[in-house]
Each structure stands twice: as C-alpha cells, then as structure tokens.
Automatic annotation (TrEMBL):
Gene3D superfamilies attached to this UniProt entry: 3.30.70.100
Lineage, opening ranks: Bacteria, Bacillati, Actinomycetota, Actinomycetes, Pseudonocardiales
Pfam families listed in its UniProt record: rhaM
Superkingdom, natural source: Bacteria
SUPFAM superfamilies per UniProt: Dimeric alpha+beta barrel
Protein name: L-rhamnose mutarotase
Species of origin: Lentzea atacamensis
InterPro entries associated with the record: Dimeric_a/b-barrel, Rham/fucose_mutarotase
C-alpha cells in the first residue's frame, strides 16, 4: 500500500463551498474510489490550502481507473470550479515529497 500526500489550493472565496460539497461525497464516487484501491483519503484545509493524505494500493493505477470513470468526471468538473488549478489527470506523480518522519 502507498501513502501519498497531495496539495491543492482553492480559488479565493470558495472555502465554504468546498466544505459544504465535501460534507458528503456522492455514493457512486465512494464506490469508485474503493474499487480503485483507495483505503483512506483525508483532507485538511488551512484557509485556501488543501492537504490530502491518500492511502491506496497503487496511486498510478487509481488515477488511471478514475480518469474516465463516470462517477469521477462530474465530480472533477465540480472541483474544477473550486480549485485554483484543475486536475486534468495528465500526470500521475504527486508533487509533495516526504522529507522527514519520526521513526
């Protein structure tokens, strides 16, 4: 299993919308994430900054599975309205690297 950290940023003034929409994700998206090997996905927000921690069997395979999944496409369209940079699924590598951990 992989643990992947991600960072995204909200558009200015969209914080409350993001919180409201994430209060309950669509059931079909929950199923799609689990089918893609996601065990856990947690998101913290500090102002407009979003920090994700994903525990997944294979991050790259998850991205490939979700890129064209019918439950994910409308979700990503909704997120594109809220995020400063839209996720176009063109890359699989997360941009947050582990630099230290307490053993």
């Amino acid at each position: 299993m992989e643990t992947v950290a991600l960072h995204t940023r909200l558009r200015e003034g969209r914080e409350a919308d993001y919180d409201r929409i994430h209060a309950r994700i669509p059931a079909e998206l929950d199923v799609a994430l689990r089918e893609a090997g996601v065990h856990s996905w947690r998101i913290w927000r500090s102002g407009r900054e979003l920090f994700h921690l994903v525990e997944v069997d294979d991050y790259e395979a998850m991205r490939a599975h979700l890129a064209t999944h019918p439950a994910n496409i409308p979700w990503q369209a909704e997120m594109a309205e809220l995020l400063e940079v839209e996720d176009d699924y063109s890359g699989a590598e997360p941009d947050v690297r582990l630099v230290w951990e307490l053993p």
